[in-house]
Amino acid sequence: MWRVIINCSAESWDTHSKDFKAIAAKYPGTPLSSKKMKGDGQRIMEYQLENVNDAEEFMEECLTIDGFTATFESL
Length: 75
Fold this sequence. Notes:
With 75 residues, the protein is of the alpha+beta class. The protein has two helices and four strands.
C-alpha cells in the first residue's frame, strides 16, 4: 500500500480545487485525511492507494497543478 501526500496553499486551493478533485477521482484511492491549517490556510491531504503505479501517476498529476506539491511513500 502507498500513501500520497499532497500540499497546497490556501490560494492554490481556491484557484485549483476543481482540478485536483478531478484528478483524485481518476484514481482508486481512499482519502485518509484532509486538513486545513489554522493561520495560513494551507491544505494537507493524504490518500491511500494499493498500486505503486497509481500512486506515482497520482502524485505526478498533482504536481502539474500550480502551487501543489506531492510525495508518496510506502505504508
